[in-house]
Model the fold of this input.
Amino acid sequence: MEVLMGHPLTDDLGFLLSRASGAVVRATNTALAGHGLRVRQYSVLVLACDAAEGVTQRELADVLGLDPSQVVLLVDELAGRELVERRPSEADRRTRLVLATAAGRALREAAERDATAAVEAPLGLLADAERDRLRDVLTRIWTAAG
Amino acid sequence: MEVLMGHPLTDDLGFLLSRASGAVVRATNTALAGHGLRVRQYSVLVLACDAAEGVTQRELADVLGLDPSQVVLLVDELAGRELVERRPSEADRRTRLVLATAAGRALREAAERDATAAVEAPLGLLADAERDRLRDVLTRIWTAAG
DNA sequence: TATTGTTATACTCTATAACTATA
DNA sequence: TATAGTTATAGAGTATAACAATA
Done:
């Protein structure tokens, strides 16, 4: 492996980003597996839980950076397990609000604890200030790409 | 979308990491498409080009964070287009060294220019010092996850 | 005309297991 | 026994296009 140290590729931010992201997602998925969730389903569940009035699927797609057609499937899956439900919006009959059920909220709490703990393996040695900076930089990358 | 601003999920480093990574990979893939490459094939090509003595597939798997079985397919693809070739190692007859051909080197140069330019959209507003810090942090995340 | 949600489809990526040939 | 490479397969993620209902 000696020949590959300090290589241009291993200095490439895109490469480093996807490799680090993959590692963290893998760790999170492992932690969520016991709850029958994966990161994408979990993300939808969390957003539904925290939106008192419900979230539209369009909003979910925008925040998560997914195509609306993918959101349909994720919500289908969660709804099938009765972790969320779709409720027609009164203001706009095209939209359907996604809301968490009591079971969904309970599962989210348990899953969140495990997910948070698991991510400490790859992220544990980052100081609070570094986390804040990383958060800021990643958000700016996302915004600039939008 | 108002209800989702400053939300716990959008502060989660794992979530931010995968969203930012996705954006950069998407931009890179778009830039590489004209060369008939995607990031993974491109990464293998770059590493093969820069290893004068060739790289083993095991080394590629370790650096890229991929399973060896995935590397086989990536190298097959590049070899099929005669961008790299497999040469048996004299030291260890189990290993096969991957080396870039002249065509592979030429394609890498052209592809690298486009990929670098494309990534400036999402990463352009990061100052040099920020890039260095980000590089460092992402490398540490990968190392800690290893 | 534009937007929300939906269905369908094809392709890429990821994860595993099992096998071979060499060490 | 362990390692490098290979084959095969299934599941998850991504990317598009087209459509109905509603705005």
